[in-house]
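Hi F.,

I've been meaning to write this up properly since the lab meeting, where we talked about keeping a consistent format for the predictions we share between groups. The idea is simple: the sequence comes first, exactly as it goes in, then the structure tokens exactly as they come out, then a line or two of notes. No screenshots and no reformatting. I'm using this chain as the first example so we have something concrete to point to.
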Amino acid sequence: MIIWKCSRCPSFRRLLLTFLGGVFLVFVWYVLARIYAGKLVLPSPFETLSTLFGLLTSVIGWQTFGVTLLRVGAAIFAGGAVGLLLGIAAGLSQDLRWFLEPLRWVSMSIPPITVVVIAMLWLGVGSGLVVCFASVMLAPIVYVNTIKGFDLVDDRLLEMATLYRFSLSMRVRRVYIPALTVPLSAAAVQVVCNAVRVTLLAEVIGSNNGMGAAISLANSTLELPTLFAWILIAVLLVGLLESLLLGPMQRRSEKWSKAK
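Output, unedited:
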């Protein structure tokens, strides 16, 4: 009876259904692993969790994870800064927005693998390649969402700010920030999720360390439990960041923007 009453609470219902969805995925994984047992296709969840525990209790595992995490953080900072600055400039200048439109279209249309190959020719392999590639892939996301925020600015508020001679700081605080909050919060979720994926992609192709390199090595040696353990770590990393940090931040920013 208590569970039934609690199930009517939106937050409890969301958590319950999310948990059940995760259990269903693990069950499907287990069934497929049983079907293809002994065929070097899919390890069981138990083998993967055992290998995952081994990675989390080893120094090499944490060093590998730390290298990738630093690269992800650097890419988010660099790509986010470039995208935000260009987005602000293009949001304030329609001419600049049109001028940058071909660059935006190219950066969001070109296949990521092509960018990695070109970057390897220019930068070689290593952290420079990984961070630069990931930054190039992430900057357009922030850029587009920043422009969306400027498009949401109410023209009447701008007229009022001009009429009452708002200072620059007041104009930014009262007019622009409320409009930019929601799009940039959505961009943060997209950037973090994509940062892990593109960083791993670059590490698989152009790095000799990090999680991507470990995935490539496990694939070449057919160590499937290790391969899936690293993939599971990447999935858990994105899930934890989104649920514990980005999700609450996005909900609070939406409430704050509506209040403003």
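Notes:
The domain at 58-259 is CATH 1.10.3720.10 (MetI-like fold).
Residues 68 and 210 are 5 Å apart (CA to CA).

If this format works for you, I'll send the rest the same way.

G.
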